[in-house]
Amino acid sequence: MQNAQVTAGGARIRWVEIPGGDGRTRVYLHGLGASSGPYFTASAVHPLLAGSRSLLMDMLGFGISDRPTDFDYTLEAHADAIAVALRAADAYATDVVAHSMGGSVAIVLAARHPELVARLVLIDANLDPVAPDRQRPGSSGIAAYTEEEFLGQGMAEVRDRVGPHWWSTMRLSGSEALYRSAVHLARGTTPTMREQLLELKIPRTYLRPEGDGPLPDEDGLVEGGVRVVPVPGCEHNIMLDNPEAFVKETARALGLG
User: Per the database entry, which stretches of residues form a coiled coil (predicted)?
Assistant: First the structure.
């Protein structure tokens, strides 16, 4: 396990590093309430993707990384903290493979720190703001609480709503980190994540569940140079639901297949 101090207060981001000798570095970023190891290890060592140095990185507040309570957990703050960790790891011009909230953070990372990102593979990432709604899972449901409510009974209510699979990693999150990250993910960025994605000049691929149908303004993304790929036989966790298709499409997006 590797680590780097990423805040003035001493908080550290940690990651699992898988060596590779092809000269490329690949960074995997998890979604809200998740951890990169459980979600990406099998894909990272698959024959189609093995060979590159791979960093399975946990964002501040999640998984094996520190959970500072004085961090604001905006998408920009997450991106800047990851940038510090990547520089400490001497990881430049990386291929970033990122799921859900991690995809949103990856877009901001590429926009704010372009020397660190050469290609993006986004996995059902959030591109637009969403309205808080306590009955919905994910960032929208968490953002419908106040922080005081969430730190009180809200965390237990979310646990009961999301079920044991997601909770297995969500329980590793700092409560403040989970809440604030959800609020800022639901609120989005200015410009929006979609707008920032369209401004990037690097290869960009967006993987979405085929059963969900087209993304909002999917044609606009395609016209803007984003390759949108419907993946069959999966829901939101594409890498877990259909791992073979996920690896195949990710390898294709990275010029490996």
Answer: none
On the CB side of 195, CA atoms within 13 Å amount to 6
Q: Is 148 exposed, middle or buried (0-12, 13-18, 19+ CB in 10 A)?
A: exposed
Tens of pLDDT, residue by residue over 222-234, are 999 999 999 999 9
State pLDDT tens for residues 161-204.
Answer: 898 999 999 999 999 999 999 999 999 999 999 999 999 999 99
Length of the chain as a residue count: 257
Which secondary structure element, helix H or strand E, spans residue 230, and what is its range? strand 226-231
Dist. CA 235–CA 157, nearest whole Å: 23
Instruction: Give the C-alpha separation, 100 to 103, whole Å.
Output: 5
106 is written with which tokens? 């990856």
Give the CA-trace dihedral at 211, 212, 215, 218, to 10 degrees.
Answer: 20
Q: How far apart, in whole angstroms, are the C-alpha atoms of residue 117 and residue 120?
A: 7
d(CA 55, CA 140): 29
The phi, psi pair for 101, rounded to 5°, reads -60, -35
Tell me how far CA of residue 58 lies from CA of 55, 92, 117, in angstroms: 9, 18, 17
Rounded to two decimals, what is the model's pTM?
0.97
Cis peptide before 38 (omega within 30 of 0): no
- Pull the structure tokens for residue 163: 């079920």
Contact status, residue 99 vs residue 125, Cβ threshold 8 Å: yes
